[in-house]
Amino acid sequence: MKKIITRLNGFIFALALICALLTVVCKLSFAGIAEKAQESKLQSVKIAQLSSGKPHIKPFNAGLMHFDTRKYNISPQTQAELKILVKEINQFEYDEIIVEGHTDFEGSGSGNIELSKNRAKAVYGELLKLGVPPAKIKYYGSSSYKPKAENYTTQGKAANRRVEIFVK
Q1: Which H or E run contains 60?
Q2: Mind listing the pLDDT tens digit for each residue in 46-79?
Q3: Residue 118 maps to which CATH number?
Q4: How far apart are CA 25 and CA 99, in angstroms?
Q5: Hey, CA dihedral for 144, 150, 153, 156, is it positive or negative?
């Protein structure tokens, strides 16, 4: 009986180790896929513009930037994504960039309005640092009024703590 328990413990340990390794591999793969998706989205905008012969960019959603609970600081990953975005869109004419901040349902209504504005303003500030003219950027907060996912799970809440950028 002891041998069986010892083997089972060894098996459980090996399974846990395999799960941990798979988690790391999946996270690394997902990060690479997300980066490629962002690049391909920008390339498709570029190709659409070059093939149409128009010097003006087509409107598109430049993507999402996610935030921690009750936070509005810009992560290094978001800074890198914004740098790529600005480099790409500066190759074209565009009318405006709209930065829209969002929150999950946690917190008070007035607190979420302020937090969503602060998230949008943080991205706005980064865009200014990267050379986007202030006259071409608008930002505002939508609080928790436009969720992308349900607000009753950890993943859903995380998906809703975001800033969306629209280029027109």
Answers
A1: strand 60-66
A2: 444 444 443 456 666 666 788 888 999 998 888 8
A3: 3.30.1330.60
A4: 33
A5: negative
